[in-house]
């Protein structure tokens, strides 16, 4: 099956033609790495969404807002002028998913090989007021005040709150100077970034 799209040095802009995210993306333009990649992503995303919909551990709100959030993250929009990828998922929505709406679910997802490699890095999404922020599209989380940031900006990934249970940065040395433990089943596979999944 031939895929038509506009090639750029960085990837391809093409209309979304899948089913998994059709409710949220419609036939809007998406950016993918190369022709045919959309179908590969669609198949893996369909498998992941089947797991989510069948799981008893996902709250109704997480399913309602997490699925469009995942779609927006996995299928970025295309800048019509540069034909480059631009984030569709808003930074504020991303943090709301991680810190509230899908807090428990995303903690487990970080350890699940089906999901861990597709989870967004909220700190990498454009800040409000930046030129690329205009490309994002809200997933409509009620009560989310999008005029303010949900938390202070972290200047580096050595910072964590409380016990560090939600820390997913790249620090690999503890505050006492000891190397962090090796995590053979995390993303990227086999790393020693500091983690405290149980919040102990």
Topology:
Elements: E1 6-8, E2 11-15, H1 22-25, E3 29-32, H2 37-54, H3 60-74, E4 77-78, E5 85-86, H4 91-101, H5 103-109
Antiparallel strand pairs: 1-2, 2-3, 4-5
Overview of this protein structure:
With 200 residues, the chain is an alpha+beta fold. It has helices at residues 22-25, 37-54, 60-74, 91-101, 103-109, and strands at 6-8, 11-15, 29-32, 77-78, 85-86. 28% of the residues lie in helices and 8% in strands. It has a three-stranded antiparallel sheet with strand order 1-2-3, with no helix packed on it. The chain has a two-stranded antiparallel ribbon with strand order 4-5. Helix 4 crosses helix 5 (103-109).
How would you summarize this macromolecular structure in one to three sentences?
The protein has 200 residues and is α+β, with helices and mostly antiparallel strands.
Specify the biggest β-sheet.
Answer: 3 strands, antiparallel
State the total count of DSSP E strands. Answer: 5
Overall pLDDT score: 76
* β-strand amount: 5-15%
Strand order of the largest sheet: 1-2-3
List low-confidence stretches. 1-8, 146-157
* Rg estimate, integer Å: 18 Å
Discrete helix count: 5
Distance between the termini: 51 Å
- Strand-and-helix sequence, N→C? EEHEHHEEHH
Helix-and-strand structural type:
alpha+beta
Principal-axes geometry comes out as: globular
Share of helix, binned: 25-40%
């Amino acid at each position: 099956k031939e895929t038509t799209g506009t090639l750029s040095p960085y990837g391809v802009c093409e209309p979304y033609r899948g089913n998994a995210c059709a409710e949220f993306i419609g036939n809007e333009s998406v950016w993918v790495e190369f022709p045919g990649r959309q179908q590969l992503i669609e198949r893996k995303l369909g498998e992941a969404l089947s797991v989510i919909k069948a799981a008893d551990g996902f709250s109704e709100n997480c399913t309602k807002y997490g699925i469009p959030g995942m779609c927006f993250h996995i299928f970025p929009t295309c800048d019509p002028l540069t034909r480059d990828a631009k984030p569709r998922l808003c930074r504020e929505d991303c943090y709301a998913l991680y810190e509230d709406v899908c807090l428990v679910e995303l903690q487990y997802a970080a350890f699940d090989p089906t999901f861990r490699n597709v989870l967004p890095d909220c700190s990498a999404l454009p800040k409000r007021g930046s030129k690329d922020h205009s490309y994002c599209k809200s997933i409509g989380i009620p009560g989310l005040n999008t005029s303010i940031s949900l938390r202070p900006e972290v200047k580096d990934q050595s910072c964590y709150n409380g016990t560090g249970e939600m820390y997913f940065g790249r620090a690999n040395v503890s505050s006492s100077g000891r190397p962090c433990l090796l995590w053979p089943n995390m993303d990227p596979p086999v790393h020693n970034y500091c983690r405290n999944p149980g919040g102990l």
